[in-house]
Design a protein that fits this description.
Strand order of the largest sheet: 5-4-1-6-7-8
Strand content: 5-15%
Largest sheet: 6 strands, parallel
Shape: globular
Radius of gyration: 18 Å
Length: about 230
């Protein structure tokens, strides 16, 4: 992080797991069951024991790129997931200090953005609920183009373009190896957000402990140190 000492970094945040534990109080199994019925009409067999977000890879394997039903199946699956996200965001558990932390960073003039595999609608609902004064660009999932989801760098690169920042002076804050891979591909630095001991151990396998924070108070202290 030493190369950030002279210049205040731009910050891009992942969403689910980094800003909020989105499905902590939501039963995604019912969403998987719904998806099973939705994609059946496209000739796609989806095991409802799978994670709901696996539906995109199942569709991709079942339908060839030349099959016109593929994009339609993607869009319909995306609509089901977006509906679940909008329901879940009402009861999801915000990561410790996120509302205060984002608001403070925004007010201190940090250049902020969000790059996520969730829908932009879900992120907007969360921001309106918890950070109503923070207006920042969000790049979310494109339903008919699931291949652009992280670890692909598309969302990160796209939001950086909206922010007007460069990769060399940007940090992605995320909670998974997908986020880390995305940051590396884009040429950005990475800070891990570990809101639990389990998350910390997972992140410790890919980055140093000094690059991991457990809440937004720790994140703010680290960022102010970087740009001080």
């Amino acid at each position: 992080m030493d190369n950030f000492k002279l210049t205040r970094p731009s910050l891009v945040f992942d969403f689910d797991g980094t800003m909020v534990k989105l499905f902590s109080n939501y039963n995604l199994k019912k969403t998987s069951s719904h998806l099973k019925e939705v994609v059946k009409k496209y000739g796609v067999g989806f095991d409802d024991k799978l994670d709901a977000f696996d539906v995109f890879s199942v569709i991709s394997c079942a339908l060839s790129p030349t099959d016109t039903r593929r994009a339609e199946a993607y869009r319909e699956a995306d609509a089901v997931l977006t509906e679940a996200e909008l329901e879940a965001v009402v009861t999801g558990q915000p990561v410790d200090g996120v509302a205060e932390g984002l608001t403070q960073l925004f007010e201190e003039g940090f250049n902020l953005g969000i790059a996520t595999n969730n829908s932009a609608k879900c992120v907007s609902a969360f921001m309106s609920r918890y950070c109503p004064t923070v207006a920042i660009p969000v790049v979310g999932r494109v339903g008919e183009r699931p291949e652009l989801m992280k670890p692909d760098a598309w969302s990160l690169v796209t939001v950086m373009n909206k922010m007007g920042c460069v990769a060399q002076n940007t940090i992605l804050i995320g909670d998974t190896s997908r986020d880390y891979e995305c940051a590396v591909t884009a040429g950005c630095k990475f800070i891990g957000m570990a809101h639990s001991g389990y998350k910390f151990e997972r992140l410790l396998k890919i980055i140093d402990a000094k690059d991991i924070v457990c809440n937004y108070r720790e994140l703010e202290e680290k960022l102010l140190g970087i740009s001080g």
